[in-house]
Amino acid sequence: MGGFGIGATEFVAMGLLPDMAVDLLPGLAATSTEAANAAAGWIISAYALGVVVGAPTIAAAAARWPRKQLLLALAAAFTLGTVASALLPTFELVVAARFVAALPHGAYFGIASLVAASLMGPGKRGRGVALVLSGLTIANVVGVPAITWLGQLAGWRIAYLAVAAIFAATFLAVLVAVPWQAGDPGATIGRELRIFSRAQAWFALGIGAIGFGGLFAMYSYIAPLATDVTGLSAGLVPVVLVVIGLGMTIGNFIGGRLADWSVRRSMYLGFAVMAGSLTMLALTAANPVGLVVGVFLVGGSASALSPTIQMRLMDIARDSQSIAAALNHSALNIGNSLGAILGGAAIAAGLGYVAPVWVGLVLTLAGAALALASFALDRARSRRGIPMPSITGAVPAVGD
User: Fold this and answer.
1) pLDDT value at residue 385
2) In Å, what is the CA distance from 149 to each residue of 10, 152, 226, 241?
3) Secondary structure (H, E, C), 117-170
4) How many other C-beta atoms lie within 10 A of the C-beta of residue 33?
5) What is the pLDDT of residues 265-317, one digit of tens each?
6) Could you tell me if 256 and 127 are in contact, meaning their C-beta atoms sit under 8 angstroms apart?
7) How many CB atoms lie within 10 A of CB 185?
8) How much is the pTM?
């Protein structure tokens, strides 16, 4: 349920971006719709940047907290931040509210992933992480399209109040249903921050930040792509969002199983399919069938990479587990911000609404290159007799 609320609050702006641009930037929208949509992309980027800042900060500072109590505090913060996003009057204040509302995002997913991995047991960590992330992907099937439809009828502010209600329900659900788990009594901020001294941690973060930007360059501007390029009516945008959400949900569960099989091979496969899907979408977006098939495959392949990147970070983290689990979401939301900014820049340059899809392809290929470099470093370390331990203390197979 927490993942569902996070998926709703993070992605509902994609479908309502033109409405938010007209309401919050009326002068610019009257002059140029494209310029207003590009500027409104900062609402998406601000949320992503909040995740980047909040995930390592909260995870490192609160690693000793009992995990259930920490999840309750984060759910309460989500509720208040989302209410502020709905009620503040100006573009600048809404951007600031989205930044603040995003601060708990990475820590919530990170701690919830650790709880799930612990409950699922050895050999099923990837599936546990995927189960937590499934709330986010299911939100893209049900929550985001429904709340986008609500926002189109009643206004984007009402849509955000609906999201705040989901977070309030999440607080109650965690209170009632989540079992108590102790925090890490030996955790210190210094110990958690040691992850940043490891080269492989930076590779993993780069893979997520740059590679995942390929999804968000496309996704951030899906509404104008569907209406202005494909020629669909605004009322069909929620249907397109459902298609993306279905792809993400299916891809997430496939990715969890593949991550338990082989992190390295599943990462290579995910990037290959994602690059091919973005290319197909860019070439066929003017056709409704091409749009639907393309966004389904892009969403599925990108979502399959998420548990794989999470597992990679958890494997290299050693004793910095809390911050490692949260950092994955910092990385993915750097990709969110980067994709939205670069896609918006391409639109503002007059290259049209297909241009962000090509931007996404470039980012995807860059992420794949980082993955190749990271696993090559693993092989080089293994040849020198310096294996990298997993979080269980066992030495994984080379590259896995």
Assistant:
1) 64
2) 16, 5, 15, 11
3) HHHHCCCCHHHHHHHHHHHHHHHHHHHHHHHHHHHHHHCHHHHHHHHHHHHHHH
4) 15
5) 888 998 999 999 999 999 999 999 999 999 999 999 988 888 788 778 777 76
6) yes
7) 7
8) 0.69
Which helix (DSSP H) or strand (DSSP E) does residue 250 occupy? helix 237-261
Q: Give 182-190's long-range contacts (Cβ < 8 A, gap of 24+).
A: 182/66, 182/67, 183/62, 183/63, 183/64, 183/65, 183/66, 183/67, 183/70, 183/322, 184/63, 184/64, 184/321, 184/322, 185/64, 187/63, 187/64, 187/322, 188/63, 189/60, 189/61, 189/63
- Whole-number pLDDT of residue 363: 94
Model pLDDT for residues 70-104, shown as the tens digit of each residue: 889 999 999 999 999 889 888 889 989 999 998 88
Upper half-sphere CA count for residue 211 (Cβ side, 13 Å): 30
Residue type at 235 in one-letter notation: G
Measuring CA to CA, which residue among 233, 313, 323 is closest to residue 267?
313
pLDDT at 146 over 80: yes
What is the C-alpha separation between 347 and 341, in angstroms, rounded? Answer: 10
Q: Which two tokens stand for residue 171?
A: 């607080």
pLDDT at 386 over 60: no
